[in-house]
Amino acid sequence: MENLVAILGAGESGVGAAILAQKKGFAVFVSDLGKIREKYQKVLSDYEIEFEAGQHTEDKILNAELVVKSPGIPETAPLIVKLREKGIPVISEIEFAGRYTDAKTICITGSNGKTTTTLLTYHILQKAGLNVGLAGNVGKSFAWQVAEEKHDVYVIELSSFQLDGMYDFRADVAVLLNITPDHLDRYGYQMQNYVDSKFRILQNQTSDDYFIYCDDDEVVKQEIEKREIASVQVPFGLGAASVPGAGVQENRIIINLKQNQFSMSILDLSLQGKHNIYNSMAAGIASMVFQIRNEQLRESLSDFKGVEHRLEHFLKVHGIEFVNDSKATNVNSSWYALESMHKPVVWIAGGVDKGNDYSILKGLVTDKVKAIVCLGKNNAKIKEAFGDCVADIVEAGSMEEAVRAAYYLARNGDTVLLSPACASFDLFENYEDRGNQFKKQVRNL
């Protein structure tokens, strides 16, 4: 069938890509090897888009002129290998949507802090009155918005998997927060492959574009030295601010950009903790590219509400504080969480281990954690890593068991922290499901 676009995966990004493809006059076929959620089935039916679930009809897909794949499908999947052998282009939804918009894009990636920085940047631009869309790993599908909403600027959170499927796409403003080992199972356990993937955020940039990056991150700094970078480099860190760039002086963040200087006390930032100073600086620089006034920027950085499932101080029960950090799907995220705790912690951790190295947590766990509740199907690595520095390590087979166990182990004045350091797919649909179940069980105590 000529002009067929096949879309693999019928989640938010796949359905958005299908709507855009149909609008652009392509024949569209959506195929998902798993189940398709009811709300997405309804959308596809309403738009009269052909779809299948529970299988891939290969004859049909291998006749497409273009395939848009979900970021969750690895390159090693047999169907992807066949498509590559036939020379059929396989791209991401972001790449596909980028072909049909001339809106400006702020693209944010990094191993940790992406969602917070993306939502904060969106918050700043929206409050300043820009016609701005939120897309990528958060918000609504980029393709769907390009098809139906037409924003002037998009703030897009990009994972390495999305970047892998992007070729001609160009970010007007690229933000790279940090690079720590994550998803190494998808990158042949080679850190350099993962680093290269993150640096794809710079592809096709010109001298008119901006590259905002953390100068305190050793991996990022070393990689920049190896590369020719065309765009305007704007580093940020906890030292003095360069020009252009951002830094901290006498407990104030300073941002220098385009003959403009912005400054505000770090105590006035709505997001506290060292990692959030980085996130606030990155969002601040990105916003200043779009000429946001200093007063507006200051106000937005001080009234932002934070992200659900990311260090969300949820409830106190009998003097025990319950904190939902379900979004911590890697070791580094949990490091930030533990680092920001100031009371004895009962730590709920575990899930699908992505080749985690827990050794960087040892010092923090020794200092701050009184007990660990393992929540996952395979907890051997956690027990092995912390068995000699935490007296109580117990296992739980469900969120209900985990919350109860943590509650019994904690005392008045302690904190129960759900910060899994792992993916969620063994017992939960995703990290949101995991965080919501945590909150539900805490309410039930």
From TrEMBL:
Record-given protein name: UDP-N-acetylmuramoylalanine--D-glutamate ligase
Organism: Maribellus luteus
This protein's UniProt keywords: ATP-binding, Cell cycle, Cell division, Cell shape, Cell wall biogenesis/degradation, Cytoplasm, Ligase, Nucleotide-binding, Peptidoglycan synthesis
Enzyme kind, highest EC tier: ligase
Pathway linked to the protein: Cell wall biogenesis; peptidoglycan biosynthesis
Binding, ATP: G110, S111, N112, G113, K114, T115, T116
Biological processes per GO annotation: cell division; cell wall organization; peptidoglycan biosynthetic process; regulation of cell shape
EC number(s) per entry: 6.3.2.9
SUPFAM superfamilies, alphabetized: MurCD N-terminal domain (SSF51984), MurD-like peptide ligases, catalytic domain (SSF53623), MurD-like peptide ligases, peptide-binding domain (SSF53244)
Residues of the Mur ligase central domain: 108-285
Function (record text): Cell wall formation. Catalyzes the addition of glutamate to the nucleotide precursor UDP-N-acetylmuramoyl-L-alanine (UMA).
Subcellular location: Cytoplasm
Gene: murD
PANTHER family the record matches: UDP-N-ACETYLMURAMOYLALANINE--D-GLUTAMATE LIGASE
